[in-house]
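User: I'm putting together notes for a lab meeting next week and I want to include a structural view of one of the chains we've been expressing. I don't have a solved structure, so I'd like a prediction I can at least talk through. The sequence is below, exactly as it appears in our construct file.
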Amino acid sequence: MGVMKRLSGILQAKANKVLDKAEDPRETLDLSYEKQLEQLQQVRRSVADVATARKRIELQAQQLQQSAAKLQDQARQAMSQGREDLAREALQRRAGIASQLQDLEAQHQQVAAQEQKLIATTQRLQAQVESFRTQKETIKATYTAAKAQTTIDETLSGISEEMSDAGLALQRAKDKVENMQARAGAVDELLASGALTDLTQPVDSIQAELDKTSTNAQVEAELAQLKAEQLGAASPAGALSAPTPPPEQDQQQDVAPSDGSPA
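Assistant: Thanks for the context. Below is the predicted structure for the 263-residue chain, given as structure tokens.
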């Protein structure tokens, strides 16, 4: 039972929250104002009904007064003609009319008092309705402005979040560009210093070994030539004897004679 009651309370709370979110207070205020106008119209109809009843009583009293005045005249005429019996009957009828007039007067006072009370109620209700209308329009205007401000704030909040995300993306792109530029600069420095091999110009390992051997042979030949020059400068007959040609020159003479004929 406790669990069911709790679930019922949760569902009711959620339903109220949904209804509160869907409810537009401006529509609620307009509906309340329309109901007050209906109540005011009902009170006005009641005032009109009471006023009609009062007027009817006044007309009846006026007719009875006319009848009473007529009977008074008839009583005078009867006495002038010596008809006392007719005068007595006229006066008796007039007395009955006077009693009716007294009852109508009491009713008239009650209806008139009720009419005045309803008129005061109508005036008070009219003032309340007018005051409610003013407050209603003020609240509606305030709500409309607050709703517009909320919509603007939510929009700006969304734009702010998007701008924040865009700023982060821009910063990440900037960092990436700077990182790539730094990496490219470091690689260029390493390539220039020879610490790295330029991958755009791959070297064959065999060709590299052949180039190394050729370079060593050239160095050895130049070194031998220098030694021979030093020995020739130190010998007394060095000026008369022809210098020993370098190995490369001997090889060239063996391969190609000076006269151009085949060996």
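A couple of points you could mention at the meeting. The longest helix spans residues 84-193. The two ends are 125 Å apart (CA to CA).

User: Perfect, that's what I needed.
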